[in-house]
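1st attempt posting a full record on here, be nice pls
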Amino acid sequence: MRHIFFLSFLFLILSGCKKSEALNEEAYAIQTVQMPAKAENVTYDKKPSPNDAPPPPPPPIKEKIEQKIIKEATLRFETDNLENTFGQIQKAVASSKARIINDSEGKDYGTVFRNLIVKVPSQNFDRFISDVSKGVSYFEVKNISAQDVTEEYIDLTSRLKTKKKLEERYLEILKKANKVSEILEIEEQISTIREEIESKEGQLKYLESRVSESTITIEFYKTIAEKEGVKISYGSKLWNAIKSGFYTLSDLLISLLSAWPFVILFVVFAYFIRKRLKRRKKE
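the predicted structure (as tokens):
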């Protein structure tokens, strides 16, 4: 009987030791397990404290800004036939959807020339230059320039947005104003801002028009024979001299007519002097 009681007591002691070892191992395992990081998008019902730091602002979205380039060109070359060259330029104008804004022609001592100013869509600039250059042996002047105005465009756009936001704030303040003096002062500020906005919008439109359309100046000429030039030049001078003499004579007659009282007095005075001289001779 004692042996049975002793064995039971020993069994209980061993069971208790095993349970305590199991509990210690479980506690150690819980302590060594790392908690997972909090998800960024998890929301909690806990109200934010005023002492908590504000959440970081979202990263700015980088807008892709198209490069703004102003293209211009000046061309000068000699041709054998002005009409054929002008016809070729007209075809280039039509195919490139361009437009001629100025057309002038003239003649000097040794050449007959024609000058054109053409507005070409910027995307067709290179194509137009290529079409006009066909058949040209060489250019006396070929100047092509490209000016990058992207920074100026961005600056104007930014300033315009700032002015518009400022105008909106003043309009909101105007709605809440009660005193006449405050209303007048705010309206004056709004008027000044509105003028600045219109000025910036005008500058922006002008810049966009120069970017969207390129300006090309074309001068082409034909050399004429030296003798022909002398004949034309001498004939022109002779005709101008005849016209000048006619105008001079007309001016003289008009001057005499305007001075008719003095002419009459001179004639009368000369008559009496002549008569007196005749009397002296008779005596």
